[in-house]
Amino acid sequence: MKSIKDIQDLKGKRVIVRVDYNVPIKEGKILDDFRIKASVPTIEFLKKKGAIVILIAHIGDDGEKSLKPVSIRLKKFIPNLNFIETPVFSDNTKNIITGLKSGDVVLLENIRREVGEKTNSPSFARGFSRYADIYVNDAFSVSHRAHSSIVGITKCLPSYAGLQLLEEVNNLSKAFNPKHPFLFILGGSKFETKIPLIKKFLREADEVFIGGAIANDFFKGKGYEVGTSLVSEGKVQVKPFFKNKNLILPVDVVVTKDGKSRTTKPSEVTSSECIVDIGKDSVESLRVLIEKASFILWNGPLGKYEAGFGGSTESLLKIISKSKANSIIGGGDTVALISKLKLEDKIGFVSTGGGATLDFLAKGTLPGIKALK
Predict the structure, then answer these.
(1) How many CB atoms lie under 10 A from the CB of residue 72?
(2) pTM of the entire structure?
(3) Are residues 79 and 98 in the same domain?
(4) Based on the domain organization, do 146 and 52 belong to the same domain?
(5) Residue 234: which pLDDT band, with cuts at 50, 70 and 90?
(6) Residue partners of 70: CB distance under 8 A and separation at least 6
(7) Angle at 174 between CA 170 and CA 180, to 5 degrees
(8) Domain range enclosing 45
């Protein structure tokens, strides 16, 4: 991929930058601005080179939400930011973009409000590419989507990778040739989407620890009672994984029933209980593995943190922050906890991606990366 650092002359050039501002918002307030802050170095680089920066992003899946709260937060980092609330192809938007000067920065309204974005419409890509001379993808966390603002536009403009996208690719690629001992920790839910990762890293990692809701499928596969715990719909084949000696499951779990919680062995969960976290013994066994590891890759929380059961995930984040190992952590929920604990600078690399991180680790590339080559 060509980097924005490879562009010879940016002064006065209009540059469309695809960023990912799909951040959690509650009652108009941004709960985690990690992705917003991650985009700032690329914006500042282009500004200093005299470019006119046109930011495009989405929030939510259906296009109903507005990026206005994001623009307010981004203005703290980019004071001269102008938010254009009118539709992409409106006369007002066109007039504002036409009048921009070197160093100006604008953010367009939610790109998913536009018909043709999610379907990767060639005519839509051509339409909004006319606003610029150059395209930059700095949205790694959306680069697993073959959308118009990720893939289609690269056929219309000279295209480059932003600084954050390059950071993601360079750091996550370390998982393809890691130092050993290599510890892989996988949490979260959606077992079906994580099968390729489990298969791959059972071959490549020294230890693979499975936690979160996907561990429930393994418990069920062992014939244990999982009660009302979250499990995958339909049949899932986990038994073939049990032959791997480097597969590690929690030795204790936290369960809830009628508002009360207790810690028990996975084999002793009752039919009316719900597994919500891993227990302290499991955290302690992971501590031992973390202390001897040279490389740690972790994706997804180990407990139902949004319901108040983030204790094990937070404990492990603190342990890893003090570890000498090279650590890479991804998954939106896990990243939110890293921000809450203010550990961003104590983790080797924190990925902005969720599904994109999983896909990149499993396949080694993404549609948005292929489009830039």
Answers:
(1) 14
(2) 0.91
(3) yes
(4) yes
(5) confident
(6) 21, 23, 30, 36, 57, 59, 107
(7) 165
(8) 4-169
